[in-house]
Amino acid sequence: MTDFNDWVRVIQARTEAALTHCLPEAHIVPTRLHQAMRYAVLGGGKRVRALLVHAAGDLCAGDPVALDAAACAVELIHAYSLVHDDLPCMDDDDLRRGKPSCHRQFDEATALLAGDALQSLAFEVLSQPGLLPDADRQLSMLHMLAQAAGSRGMAGGQAIDLESIGHELTQTELEQMHIHKTGALIRAAALLGAHCGREDAEVVRAVDGYARNIGLAFQVVDDILDGESDSSTLGKTAGKDAAQNKPTYVTILGLARARQLALELHDNALAALRPLGARAQRLEQLAAFVLQRRF
Amino acid sequence: MTDFNDWVRVIQARTEAALTHCLPEAHIVPTRLHQAMRYAVLGGGKRVRALLVHAAGDLCAGDPVALDAAACAVELIHAYSLVHDDLPCMDDDDLRRGKPSCHRQFDEATALLAGDALQSLAFEVLSQPGLLPDADRQLSMLHMLAQAAGSRGMAGGQAIDLESIGHELTQTELEQMHIHKTGALIRAAALLGAHCGREDAEVVRAVDGYARNIGLAFQVVDDILDGESDSSTLGKTAGKDAAQNKPTYVTILGLARARQLALELHDNALAALRPLGARAQRLEQLAAFVLQRRF
Question: What does pTM read for this prediction?
Fold first, then answer.
């Protein structure tokens, strides 16, 4: 098996290439919109969701072309959510991945439309005729992605997040928010990967349990990073959650218990993979990668 | 054949019922988001796009359940576009269908997320497993809707519209903008309807020609209405385009030639239907309905 770090670089590069290919070129009218879409998607990010698609897909001998399309679709949804999240009426953030956020680089209206069009493009990419030999399977993948993105998934999590500003949340309420806001798309990424290959109920069950825990761990780590980093390390405005009086795992649990929780979720994710044995090594490595982003 | 006005009322009512059913109930968490989504979609609008789905679908003996789903999907995309279009960074409009626009009734962030989630819901509704017996057909409908909504369709048209503010446009440039902004989704509505039934290349070709002309006629009529109505008749802020120095068919052609153009497009739409003979009566009636909304 390829070294994990090499594998990460390969998947990141092929995802970048696939995204570059599926995004309309910058000279196509409307040029400013297409420039903004490319700006928001290309040249940054760890592509954790694409890595999950591929790691889960490899378990089921997923078709490479279908895996690339699924990875693009999930990354496009993620990118659109960041563009809208940074808008003045949401988090009002000037910095993203170390660069001006999309509405700072272009303008608010263009950023709004770029986000909208990136969401459409995600469904366009995943609905390409003949992507999988089994059209019913492809339909159920589209349905899964739509649910994960919508009001009972990611967009719903954002809404819960908005409502929580200035309120005290319990750990359970915070967890509910993140299960929607970050967890739904992370889970969809892993399940989409698994659906690109052989139908295998045991794999799907294991991947699902793994992804639910990793999704939450991912957010706990994010909160820890937000609490302890400066903006230049983080590539986005640091300390923002605390400044906006947003509840985080760090504000609710304190730094030490938040770190402990991240480790527990990591262990739970590995436990979910146990029935798969050595086949799940890539997903295990990816769990460590998610956890160790900075600490 | 049922009287046209009765048919319109029946389709409007069944579309309202189908939308009410597919939207998450207002008491489901996040409640404010779900309330905003329902507010933006239900209880208003002529449902022209749903009428097009059904009129085209009836030509091909389309399955009623699939037609309702396609009608919902198109109306959800349309509703999301109106919510985002009314936001302060876009048209900054306080009034929509005679009520406060979504961000005025709720708040900007909620309206942004409601629009986002309505787009996801459109794809969720149209990707329901088993909606059509032919999953490949259903996939191509999803692909068609995604293209019509995206940067080379509706969202692209909005971007061209933004870029055009304060610029002189030729009639051809204005037409290009509207082919994207309004035309793409109107065309998708008619084609989705046709795809819900028997595969029939002649019907698809005729419906496509019809829909391209009707889509443009729809916009010309909109510009005429915007130029001559007051806000209470229109249900949205009147005279806005002229005040914002946006080019319209009325500002470019004058009122008399704009009316003439609407009639020509109507005739072209009917000409496209001619090969279908009497089968196309509902689409013919619908063309008159679009044209005669107010004048």
Answer: 0.95
- E strand or H helix at A93, and its extent? none
Q: Are B150 and A108 in contact (CB under 8 A)?
A: no
Tokens for A24, please give them: 């309309």
Name which of A153, A263, A269 is nearest A211 in CA terms. A269
Is the peptide bond preceding residue B24 cis, with omega within 30 degrees of 0? no
C-alpha span between B240 and B227 (Å, rounded) = 9
Q: What is the mean pLDDT of residues A181-195?
A: 96
Q: How far apart are CA B237 and CA B222, in angstroms?
A: 12
Distance CA A247, CA A164 (A): 7
By the CB < 8 Å criterion, does B136 face chain A? yes
Domain boundaries, chain B: 4-124+132-291
User: Residue A152 and residue B32: Cβ atoms within 8 Å?
Assistant: no
Which residue in A34, A146, A159 is closest to B151 by CB distance? A34
pLDDT tens for each residue of B202-213: 999 999 999 999
How does DSSP assign A225-242, residue by residue?
A: HHHH--HHHHSS-TTHHH
Residues linked to residue A100 through DSSP beta bridges, in sequence order: A95
Question: Is the dihedral angle over the CA atoms A270, A276, A282, A283 positive or is it negative?
Answer: negative
CB of A143 within 8 Å of any CB in chain B?
A: yes
CA separation for the pair A169, A283 (Å, rounded): 32
- CATH (one of 1.10.10.10, 1.20.200.10, 1.10.600.10, 3.30.565.10) for B4-124+132-291: 1.10.600.10
Concatenated DSSP letters for A20-65?
HHHSPPTTSSSHHHHHHHHHHHSS-S--HHHHHHHHHHHHTT--HH
Q: Looking at the predicted structure, is the pLDDT value of residue A131 above 90?
A: yes
CATH number for the segment(s) A4-291: 1.10.600.10
